[in-house]
User: Fold this.
Amino acid sequence: DLNIKESVAKILGPDNITWLIRAGSSDAGLGPLLPYLHEPREYQLFTSVISHERDLVFVDVGANVGGYTIRACKKGLRTVAIEPDPENFKILAENIKLNNCKDIYFYNIAAGDKNSYQVIYTQKDKDYGTISLVGGSTPRGVVQVRRLDEILKIFVDSNLFVKIDVEGYEIEVLKGMEKLFPMIRWLFIECGAKNVDKLYLC
Assistant:
């Protein structure tokens, strides 16, 4: 079990958002959101969308500790967060509670192309941003996998903003959300180089 008090620190980030972050992590300055420094265009687009389109349901597939999830729900969007790693999920749940987020659903499962149970891995030792179903250096246990179009049944006829960051498992996630495509207004995918060509086949 994750010992919250020993493993994380609490900070107050921009926009008056309170964060629990892993002690000693690079999130200490601005809160958990890697694109601040490494993917600024993605962050700018995300910020613009959630600021101007409030009729969306934001779906965060690979939510980690809530960098996108918390910002979306604080803007008033209905939000769904999916995070398979138990430790990440526990911090995510605490961040949701700390920020008094409403109208949010959060699931400690993985999204994929079929309902099953699979092993998750850390691709780099002690790097909790590289949790993946495609293999890695360290097995982290077995998680439930469900199709996204089944998880989101309750949001039929909604306008969706889907963000997918699943460390190489994006094709399987897309195959498991085929029924949702007509509902998607915005789709952000972090895609590994080996999967870029496969996106056209989905």
Notes: The first helix runs from residue 4 to 7. Residues 121 and 132 are 5 Å apart (CA to CA). Helices lie at 4-7, 40-52, 67-74, 86-98, 148-151, 170-175. The longest strand covers residues 138-147.
